TrEMBL record:
The active site is at S203 (nucleophile), D291 (charge relay system), H328 (charge relay system). GO terms for biological process: polysaccharide metabolic process. Substrate binds at Y108. Residues 12-345 form the Acetyl xylan esterase domain. This is Cephalosporin-C deacetylase. GO terms for molecular function: carboxylic ester hydrolase activity. Signal peptide: none annotated. PANTHER family: CEPHALOSPORIN-C DEACETYLASE. It comes from Myceligenerans xiligouense. It holds the Pfam family AXE1.
Amino acid sequence: MLSAATQEVAVAQFDMPRGELEQYTPQIDEPDDFDDFWAHTIAEARAAGDAQPGGGAPVLERVDAGLTQVTVDDVTFPGFGGHPVKAWLTRPAHAEGPLPAVVQYQGYNGGRGLPHEHLGFAAAGYAHLMMDTRGQGSGWGGGGATPDPVGAGPTVPGYMTRGIEDPHDHFYRRVLTDGVRAVDAVRAIDGVDPERVAVTGVSQGGGITIAVAGLLGDLAAAMPDVPFLCHYRRAVQISDAMPYGEITQYLHVHRAPEVEERTWRTLSYLDGVSFARRAQAPALFSTALMDDVCPPSTVYAARNAWGAEAEGATTEPPRIDVYPYNGHEGGAEYRFAQHLAFLREHL
């Protein structure tokens, strides 16, 4: 996320022409055991949750937020390793019948914030789960409440190189698993229709959205905006903006060839393009042509790969809304109306 002052400054359109972006389908380094790696990861996390008291069911505590038309619950659910992950659940106060749900993931170094910051989806009639991001929540916004109890070796400040020596130890293995478990949690809540669940997020949240859609084949919709965590090599090659710049800085210092090889191998298990290939849910993407944080070619790489390896995949890539004169803020507030229209169609 960028401050209001920063958002006023955009670079020129620096990436491929739009016609080339529409056709961009790069070959990426995908490990042969990608599916086994993630199947084992998710199964292990679910087993760790099931072993906890109450069988790992989400714990809800009603919060008096001073709101009359929306109810708020402070949710705790077991994520990666069974670690407790926090979330806010907001719902229309007088709703009847099982509600469709939207699970939302937060941007880089933001937390779940405060419940009154997330009222839009509940006001539109949805159950809305805003997942906290473990270890983050102190960079902007209203803060987070979920620690990450797992350590790491030498890293660049930030999250891209935490556990970079091995994909099993990487920070985003834990976060993406938390994202799947957030969907598991909302499906287990009374008053939510488990068959009508969508996922969404901006930037890092968009990257998590893509990963969860690739790992869960039964979502109703996915809405990633200016997504991060896609096509890492391309991002590092064409932009020095953070957070991808953390990878560049790490390799600048740890310059041995074997370290570079190990780094790209780890990241190959976390690339949104690989998750997108496996995704089956209807999707709505967005990108901005002046975005040097998540360059448009990295977004198109995921969008153009969507469903390529999914059973019964269509030949047409998902819709993508393009903002030619914007940076990483993308469509910002203009996205909400597009989201609601998309959800009405699919939920």
